[in-house]
Amino acid sequence: MSDTDALPGIDHAPVEAWITAHVAGLTPPLKFSLISGGHSNITYFVDDSAGWGAVLRRPPLGSKGGNAHNMAREYMVIAALAGSPVPVPAALALCEDEAVNGSPFYVMGRCAGRVVENPETVAEFFPSLSSRRRAGEQIVDVMAAMHMVDIDSVGLGDAARREGFLDRQLKRLTGVWEQNKTRELPVMETLRERLVALKPEQLATGIVHSDYRMGNVMFTADGTLSGVLDWELWTLGDPLADLAFLLNNWDEPDDDAPQVLMQLPPTRAPGFPTRAEVLARYAAATGFDVSGIEYYRAFQHWKIAIIAEGVKRRYEQGNMANQDVDFEHLSNRVVTMAELATAHLDRLG
C-alpha cells in the first residue's frame, strides 16, 4: 500500500475510478495529497501522471452532514458563479454516491497563483508594496461584486431564504452552540441576548460567503484575485455580515489586538489598505450604508467563537485529518472572540 492509498478520507481505488469516469482529460494513476490549513471540510490535491491537476473536497471524517458539510451546496454555488465577476474554481464533477468514498465529494479545477495565509507568505509572494495594495483592493472589489450578483439570474434565488438573515442566524447559531460547546461560557448567552436586542434591519440581500478573508482566496503574483475558495458556509442574506468578517480578519501592522486566529493575518505585513480604507472602498462600490458595522463585527466574533468551539470539539474527538494543532489556543480563542464581540457591542452604546 502506498502513502496515497493510506491517506485519511480517501478510499483510493474507488475514488480514482469514479474521477476517471466523470472528469475528462486525465491520465491515471491519480495521486491524492492533503492540503494543509483546512479546519472543517477536507481538501486534497489530485494529480495525474501527465501533469493534470484538480482539487477534491469532502466533509470532515465522522461528519453526519448538515449545510456546512453539504458538498452539493458548495458545488452549486461555484457552478452558478462561473463566468460572473466573481472568480471561482471550475466545477468539474459532484459525487453524491456515498458508496464510493463513504461520503459525498466534489472535484474542482485549480486557480492560478496561491493562497497568502500569513505575513511570511506575503513577504515571499508579494515582495512589492504595490502588489499588496492591489491584493487588498481586489479582495474588497470582488466581495462587492459578489454582493451585487443578481441571485435570480445565476440560479441561486431559491437556494435559501432572502430576508430575516440575522433572525435566522441568531436562532440557528444558538442551537449550534448547544451542540458544539465543550464547557459552560455564560458570556456567550449574554452576547446572544444583546445581539437579539440590538439587531438592525436588513438593508440588502445578496450572496453571503460567510468565511470571506485572505486565507480563502487565491492571488497571482501581481495581486490579482484569481479565485474565491471554501464556500461551505455560504447562504443568501445580509452582505454586511461578510464585510464585518473581513474587517475582523484584517489586522494592521501596528495593531495590538489579541491573536484569535490560527495564524497572524497577512495584513499584518505593511502595504495593505487600512480597515478604514476597506470600509470606504466597499461602501463606494456597493452604495450600502455601513454605519452600523460595529453590530455586524460583534455578531461575527460571536458566530466564529461558536464555530471555533466546534472545531475544538472535532479535533478533540480525532475527526480531523490533520491533528497537528495547538489545543490550548483552540480553547482560548473562543473566550477571546467573545470578549472582542462584547467590546464592539459596547461601542454601539
UniProtKB/TrEMBL annotation:
Residue ranges of domain Aminoglycoside phosphotransferase in the record: 32-258
A Pfam family assignment: APH
SUPFAM superfamilies assigned: Protein kinase-like (PK-like) (SSF56112)
Annotated PANTHER family: HAD FAMILY PHOSPHATASE (PTHR47829:SF1), HYDROLASE, PUTATIVE (AFU_ORTHOLOGUE AFUA_1G12880)-RELATED (PTHR47829)
Full protein name: Unannotated protein
Organism: freshwater metagenome
